[in-house]
Design the sequence.
């Protein structure tokens, strides 16, 4: 065999080997002989600027070589941000075969985040086949309305799709939300109940007790509770006051307080008691009670014989009667 023939055969062998390698690379989707075959679109962001700092992460189930990229919004630093986005993506995929990636949205703040919305771009060369939960897909973006996120809570979305072109698929996720400062106030409903007690009858010359009981029959505290009693004419306190103002302070729910005051009368008669309990805008009236006071009457009578002999004993009787008006009694 001549040298020329040997050279021709060697060239043919090299050409066949190169064709076989190219074919295998196309079938596996791993073929890449330089950046010139996958030009970056004008204005496109790199994976780092679009998705955050890339770092190896736990492999997704069934997807070898997965990586995790994260970014904190809005400052880029976890300590000063409210939301963390985590995207788990496979390192490479096969042309025409379905694959999936996931995006987690986590609340980093101590307050609830409202109306959380996640948006992910859909680049050329990528057909979305399914999303979980379902996304609102319009044009080149998919949007998820995630609702509210409690402090420390997170939600995850899954995107499935098929690569339709050899090269790179770059998806860029963004998140926006509304933050609100929330506080709680307890709503209570205190309710006052007042009862008064006094003797039904007595003597007008004897002081008697008037007892007032106030109860908070509702919920929460009833503060600065006062009882006001305008005494009927003819009745006063022992110090001569006709207007009673009694301070009961604060009554907790279901708490009762009782106070007693001594009254005196300037005359006999029937006296109707009434009192009102007040606390801020609360007000309660007691059911009236009546005390009837009678005036004591002392009567002396003497009886004896009309006629008698001198120096002889005389029988006489002295009778003392004590009764009250209008009904006499012994």
Sequence:
């Amino acid at each position: 065999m001549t040298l020329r023939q040997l050279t021709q055969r060697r060239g043919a062998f090299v050409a066949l080997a190169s064709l076989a390698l190219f074919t295998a690379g196309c079938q596996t989707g791993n073929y890449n002989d330089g950046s010139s075959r996958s030009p970056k679109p004008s204005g496109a962001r790199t994976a780092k600027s679009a998705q955050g700092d890339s770092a190896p992460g736990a492999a997704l189930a069934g997807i070898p070589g997965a990586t995790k990229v994260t970014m904190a919004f809005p400052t880029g630093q976890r300590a000063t941000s409210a939301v963390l986005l985590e995207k788990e993506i496979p390192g490479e995929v096969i042309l025409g075969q379905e694959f999936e990636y996931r995006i987690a949205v986590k609340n980093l703040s101590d307050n609830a985040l409202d109306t959380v919305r996640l948006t992910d771009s859909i680049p050329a060369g990528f057909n979305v086949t399914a999303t979980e939960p379902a996304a609102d897909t319009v044009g080149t973006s998919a949007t998820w309305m995630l609702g509210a996120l409690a402090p420390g809570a997170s939600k995850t979305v899954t995107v499935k799709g098929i690569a339709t072109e050899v090269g790179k698929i770059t998806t860029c996720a963004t998140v926006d939300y509304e933050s609100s400062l929330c506080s709680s106030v307890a709503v209570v409903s205190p309710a006052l109940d007042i009862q008064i007690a006094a003797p039904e009858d007595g003597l007008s010359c004897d002081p008697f007790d008037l007892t007032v009981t106030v109860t908070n029959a509702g919920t929460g505290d009833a503060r600065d509770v006062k009882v006001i009693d305008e005494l009927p004419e003819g009745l006063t306190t022992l110090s001569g006051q006709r207007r009673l103002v009694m301070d009961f302070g604060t009554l907790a729910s279901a708490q009762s307080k009782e106070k007693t005051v001594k009254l005196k009368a300037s005359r006999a008669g029937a006296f109707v008691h009434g009192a009102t309990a007040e606390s801020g805008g609360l007000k309660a009236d007691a059911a009236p009670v009546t005390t009837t006071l009678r005036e004591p009457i002392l009567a002396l009578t003497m009886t004896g014989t009309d006629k008698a002999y001198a120096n002889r004993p005389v029988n006489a009787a002295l009778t003392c009667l004590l009764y009250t008006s209008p009904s006499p009694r012994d």
Summary: The longest helix spans residues 3-28. The first strand starts at residue 53 and ends at 56. The two ends are 164 Å apart (CA to CA). The chain has two helices and 23 strands.
